[in-house]
Amino acid sequence: MPGSQKTDKQTTVADLRDVVAEFVDERNWKCYHNAKNLSMALSIEAGELMEHFQWLTSEQVVAGEGYQLSEVKEELADVVCYALAIADALEIDLATAISAKMEKNRSKYPPAEGDGPASVAK
Asked: Is 55 left (phi over 0), alpha (psi -120 to 50) or beta?
């Protein structure tokens, strides 16, 4: 898949995991890819993502003002790549983990109680 331009609808989580794993393997970085190092790297990249929106109002962000979408895409890709690498390092099936977490969230936040952000702050 290197060099290919597939959309989300054309790509599986397994495909993405393979792309990240291949990149890591080609550079012999596997010895550095443990949950501790990868979670730190993910946090750093998440911080870099947040920097693009720091000091902007919600209205500016919604309007697409004050940041470069191309740079946000790169930072978001870094975050997702590290999340995929953590899943790989810990042999976590992301589809199963996400499904289980969403079920837990459904129980915690039933639709009848949903009133936007105010219902989450309980």
From this structure: left
pTM: 0.86
Q: Decide: residue 12, CB within 10 A, 0-12 exposed, 13-18 middle, 19+ buried.
A: exposed
- Reduced to 3 states, what is the DSSP secondary structure of residue 19? helix
Cβ neighbour number for residue 16 with a 10 Å cutoff: 19
Length of the chain: 122
| Partner residues linked to 115 by β-bridges | 117
pLDDT digits 0-9 by tens, 54-111? 999 999 999 999 999 999 999 999 999 999 999 999 999 999 999 999 999 999 998 8
What are the structural domains, with CATH classification, of the chain?
10-115 (1.10.287.1080)
Amino acid at 30: K
